Amino acid sequence: MKRLLTAAAATVLATAAFAQGYPEKPITVVVPFAAGGPTDKVARDLGVALGAALKQTIIIDNVGGAGGTLGATKVAKAAPDGYTLLLHHIGMATSPGLYRKLPYNTLNDFEYLGLINEVPMTLIGRPTLPASNYAELRKWIDANKGKINLANAGLGAASHLCGMLFQQQVGVDMTTVPYKGTAPAMNDLLGGQVDIMCDQTTNTTGQIEGGKVKAFAVTTLKPLTTPSLAKLPTLDSQGLKGFNVSIWHGLYAPKGTPAAALEKINAALKVALKDAEFHKREEALGAVVVNDARVSPAEHKKFVAAEIDKWGTAIKAAGVYAD
């Protein structure tokens, strides 16, 4: 018994010492996409605020490939010491449905730290499309079944997911045209080679403001407050009840990371999400910083679990899979 008490006391002292000293060296945040993209931008902006809150350097490690699963795998298999984190987007919830085999379990192989932001999406069309509002667009869709080209930025991309869900809810199959990224998809939409696309405000706001595309609706349940998008109706209010698609980002650690580290990171994340400069940078991207219970680990995990169910059902219905 004495030995057990001594061991327990030693564990408590070691935990306390870890908590007091953590973090003692730079923390690496893995971004499972190439540098320069929206997720990388979020990570680098958050890294500044998070590093200030933790009083430590944040290093961004871009590990792209396989729709974000390579970077996620790296973190799932990393040492659970609090010095390797993952910043991922909605792909955390869609990968279980898209990929037949994942080298990790999304809900069981990570510690959830909190949701960071949400990015609304917009439904847009080529400038020559003979429709000026969503009601007219819907009539055009019904009159052109089998002739509509729907662009996206590739398998698993935000535009692919949104477009897939849109087809299901309007009950019209469209010819899906995948591209290697948003830029080429947008170029062909502007040129009239494809008809419509559903993509993040980070990629569409400038085109809408410039009058270069037709804008028909937003994908959130509530209208947006951005001046150039405020007059756009929601798809929910136009008959697609419950249509709600936002691209979100969250922060994760390998399973088994010490509770003391998780608590410090979560506390620092809450401070970072209130940072004025971070808010300013997110607003410039068209993103909304999360300010609700989902910043807590438990609610973050609960949210992702619900998103896995939501997208798993949609992906299965569409019959879209990646090897």
Automatic annotation (TrEMBL):
UniProt keyword annotations, A-Z: Signal
Record has Hydrolase as a keyword: no
Pfam families per UniProt: TctC
Signal peptide boundaries: 1-19
InterPro entries associated with the record: BUG, Bug_dom1
PANTHER family: BLR1237 PROTEIN (PTHR42928:SF5), TRICARBOXYLATE-BINDING PROTEIN (PTHR42928)
Family: Belongs to the UPF0065 (bug) family.
Name of the protein: Tripartite tricarboxylate transporter substrate binding protein BugD
Lineage: Bacteria, Pseudomonadati, Pseudomonadota, Betaproteobacteria, Burkholderiales
